[in-house]
Amino acid sequence: MAATVASSIQIAAARPCISSSHRIVKAGAAILGANSRSVSWTKLTSACNISSLEPFRCSFSSSPVKFNEVVTKAMSESSENKPVSGLPINLKGKRAFIAGVADDNGYGWAIAKSLAAAGAEILVGTWVPALNIFETSLRRGKFDESRVLPDGSLMEITKVYPIDAVFDNPDDVPEDIKTNKRYAGSSNWTVQEVAESVKQDFGSIDILVHSLANGPEVTKPLLETSRNGYLAALSASSYSYVSLLKHFVPLMNPEVSNNVSCRYGGGMSSAKAALESDTRVLAFEAGRKHKIRVNTISAGPLRSRAAKAIGFIDTMIEYSMANAPLQKELSADEVGNTAAFLVSPLASAITGAIIYVDNGLNAMGVGVDSPIFKDLNIPSDKH
Description:
The chain has ten helices and eight strands. By secondary structure, the protein is of the alpha/beta class. Strands 1, 2, 3, 4, 5, 6, 7 and 8 form an eight-stranded mixed sheet that branches. Helix 1 (107-117) links the parallel strand 2 and strand 3 (121-127). The model is unreliable at 1-7, 16-80 and 259-264 (pLDDT under 50).
């Protein structure tokens, strides 16, 4: 999203070699259309006026709009030995750990699907209080429709690990969390313990994805955010990635790490700015020491379960559709497919990059719905 609001995802992966093997995964695209209606343009304010209108405090309902969904296709086993045309994404034999998957409608889930479609084995880390609901829904088939891959098979999650990335090791966990009933029945969920569990279970991983964030005061403007709220956002949303990479690096075959994060209030914008800076520093350090690439996806607004908690996600989406160069609603799959590319051998020279997946909104210095543009004939999709 633009300067006020944005999302990002961080990805780490070992530096891959491009193989000449013909047993590779085919990447392709399927374009799916949805019925469209006109967007309610009058609800949106221009970027130059937004600060004086208490932005994102009104309740807006967004209209369904036309969008394209791009899906990564993986070659099925039956066609594995057939000649492959085009430029494929091959993640077969790779193992990915994705921290921050708690349902089937967020960026973490979409990344897991794209990596699975390209052949990767999927491990996920789920926030401890959400673990029971997530595993129960997965077991009972509530996510089966969302698990369908382009070849018709279902995405398999090899193992789900409980995780709370706010705590590096057991000594960091305060007594009130240890005795909290939401954590009862779960163990080994600090970052250090999760890394140790993954090492014990699988030995190594190739891809690490950080797709989590939290800010207890996310609905507050920065000027009204307390010190505790600000530091909590930085801890959960920024340092959590540093900690993950620190503890998972010993497990990683030299390759890639990615991050996805979102900027809102309550110090979250500061946390995500820190993530982008950390991406560059970690790219150098992890690249020189471990031959690991580090990149961040800065994604546009998505109507996910977590985003709904901030209260103005519909406004953000409508603003994006009104002002971005590409006037369509962002699909989580588009972020997932970008992650699949970044962790693949096709991106072997890309590290320390902030990749915007937001329909181009980041390129706009001012909203095109601003009154100063009212006499210009700017093309727009209002059908």
